[in-house]
Amino acid sequence: MNTVTPRTELRRRRKATSRILQFIRSKTIGNTVPTLLFSEEIVEPPVNVQIVETEISSAEPSDFVLDNSQVNVESDINFPLLLPDSLRLWATAHNVTHMCLRELITIINPHINNILPLDPRTLMKTPRQIVIEKLGGGELVYFGIKKGVERRLKLKLSDCNFPIIKKWQHESISKIISISVGIDGVPISQSNTKSFWPILGMLDQAVDSSPFIIGLFCGMSKPKDTLFLKQFVDEALELERTGILFKDLQFAFKISCIIADAPARSFIKGCKQHNSYNSCERCEQEGEWLGRVILRETVCPQRTDDKFIKKTDADHHTYDSELLRLNLGLVSQIVLDHMHLVFLGVTKKLLNIWVKGKLPHRLSSQQVLILSRNLIRLRPFVSRDFQRKPRGLDELNHFKATEFRLFLLYSGIAVLGETLPLNKFKNFLKLQAAMSILLSPNASIKSWNDVARSLLIQFVKEVELIYGPEFMIYNVHSIIHICDDALNFGNLSRVSAFPFESYMQKLKSMLHAKNYHLNQVAKRLQEIEAIDFATKIMKSSTQQFSNSKYDNCFYLGDGTYVILKYINLSIKYAEFYEVIKLDKFPEYPFNSLTVNIFLAKITTNVRIVNYSEVMYKCLLLPYKNMYLCLPLLHTLK
């Protein structure tokens, strides 16, 4: 765990104290404390409160808010908070320790007539006891599905576009609410083998798509069996039988999918590991041994939910999982997570072969240096939508999944053509094109899905010819099956492990002491639950437009591409420079114009239009003496 020096800790405390005192001064006059700030009565949120949004989020294009720098937008979410609520919200948002909070209360209490409790546990509503169950070689705290769902039902629901849920809805009288479940392990520290195995949920129809905790297992290793899922399965079956009644509305309940990486999937399903001969979760192929298990076939008999239950392929199964009791397709509804499969799997393997692999596939040191320089040159052209900018390949061992995603979908197409042999570059573009389709709204459209499937099959077949049969490992083979998940769930970014992985890192950050890890995290989670859920949504889910350089390329509804120059909010218009299409991308596996990827140049022609005509955002990357324009997939409508 990261250590903090005393000087850094002191500086943080001083800044925190300064912010709180500034807040108090703005709410008080002299020694008089307004009763509104400390009243226990419920305060109704006022209408049309002005808030300032300071971050970019991944909302739909219809939620864009245009600004020159930062723009006030109207929202009915933000409202005045009581001072104790504000302190609790601040303490949980910044992961403040109770020791620090105690010192802060001691400092500010004399200025506000000592109205705050002296013990931070009283202020934070910390539970006195945590119910812990010992099982499976560790301990489990179970929080429940219904509590997390009901907290998100307090906010407005949105429509879920999963094709599988639309199918269920046609067969149901009540409105269906469903959750995506994430299960995986995360090590607590590098000094021992202790780890958390959280069961996380995400309400598919919620405005707030952040995960919530269902259960948390802690042990010196992963659970010995799937008994840690028993309470989760029992509650899910009960909710499917009775539904959820909320504010006189009756909802039917379903589990839409379970998201996990390959080792976790084999563990919770009770099937063979990814390095076994019968490891493929979607087809009945038996692997070959070539220094490792490889899966060379692309056409094989498919596994089905019914076959899995009946265990028609006995070599694929190891034990009976608790999940068998659920009304859940253990083949079709346990998705092949593309974050681990494609970004951390295939894309990472390709880069490792090019940079550190064996000849003849390894690039020369000069070519690697050129490739690294070209990636670094893209840094100022990458918009604020990306948390991590491109960096040199000398840091490849430290790349995160978001960086591999950026490379595969956007930056790779702009930089690889100069250094990679043409056959390898075209092979890479087949993977890029297929994933661009599967991560777009077209993913569940049969014709587009067939195109993506064909491209992935071609990619896998070519990989064996180019890199050799030893490249045909589980990850490479399994990408031909992710098109099936797109037919069931649409855009694969909606069934990704990214939000669950981020949440698991937050769980680790809640640890402050070396002992009682499960107690610490369970208490912090219940402190967060004690805060009214609507209070926590401090930021609007709207996006911003910016006229910052290389962060201001957009597509208009009339088919033109523009660069934002100026916005006038009072009369709702914006000035744009036009972007001219020059040509399709020549090496693309099909006409790149059909997916709005093209070579372009920026003109000085100015257009004045209503900014409501903007449909989605684009990325302009330098390519030779032109620009390469690519749509940002998460903004597509």
**What is the structural class?**
alpha+beta
* Proportion of helical residues: 25-40%
Taken as a percent bin, the fraction of beta residues is 15-25%
The strand count comes to: 21
Count of DSSP-assigned helices: 19
Mean pLDDT: 86
Can you summarize the main beta sheet?
A: 9 strands, mixed
What is the general shape?
globular
For this entry, what is the oligomeric state of its chains? single chain
Q: Indicate the low-confidence ranges by residue numbers.
A: 27-80, 537-543
- N-to-C CA distance: 41 Å
How much is the radius of gyration in Å?
26 Å
Number of structural domains: 4
What's the gist of this structure?
The protein is an alpha+beta fold. It has four domains: 6-32 and 79-123, no CATH class; 133-261 and 503-532, no CATH class; 336-494, no CATH class; 543-635, no CATH class.
Describe this structure in words.
There is one protein chain. The protein has helices at residues 6-27, 83-93, 98-108, 120-123, 145-153, 163-170, 230-242, 262-269, 305-310, 338-356, 365-377, 401-415, 422-438, 446-467, 474-478, 482-489, 498-509, 517-530, 533-536, and strands at residues 49-52, 64-66, 72-75, 133-135, 138-142, 175-183, 186-187, 195-203, 212-219, 244-246, 249-260, 288-289, 293-294, 334-336, 543-545, 553-556, 561-568, 573-584, 598-610, 614-623, 626-631. The chain is an alpha+beta fold and 637 residues long. It has four domains: 6-32 and 79-123, no CATH class; 133-261 and 503-532, no CATH class; 336-494, no CATH class; 543-635, no CATH class. Helix 1 packs across helix 3 (98-108), helix 13 runs antiparallel to helix 14 and helix 14 packs antiparallel against helix 16 (482-489). The chain is globular, with a radius of gyration of 26 Å. The relative contact order is 0.12.
